[in-house]
Amino acid sequence: MVRKIVAIALVTGGLMVSACNTVEGAGKDVKSAGQAIEKTAN
C-alpha cells in the first residue's frame, strides 16, 4: 500500500514539473511574438 502511494506521488510530481516547463515555454513564445509585433508596429 505504501509503495503504491509513493509511486503515485512520484508520477504526479513528474507530471507537474513537465507541465510547468511546458507552460513556461509557451509564455516565452507568446512574449517573443508580442515583441516582434511591437517592433513591426514601430
TrEMBL record:
Similarity-based family: Belongs to the EcnA/EcnB lipoprotein family.
- Asked if Cell membrane is a keyword of the record, the answer is yes
* Name of the protein: Entericidin A/B family lipoprotein
For this protein, the record's Pfam families field holds:
Entericidin (PF08085)
First and last residue of the signal peptide: 1-19
In terms of InterPro entries, this protein maps to: Entericidin (IPR012556)
| Keyword annotations of the record | Cell membrane, Lipoprotein, Membrane, Palmitate, Signal
**Highest classification ranks of the organism:** Bacteria, Pseudomonadati, Pseudomonadota, Alphaproteobacteria, Sphingomonadales
Q: Where are the transmembrane segments?
A: none
Q: Which branch of life, at top level?
A: Bacteria
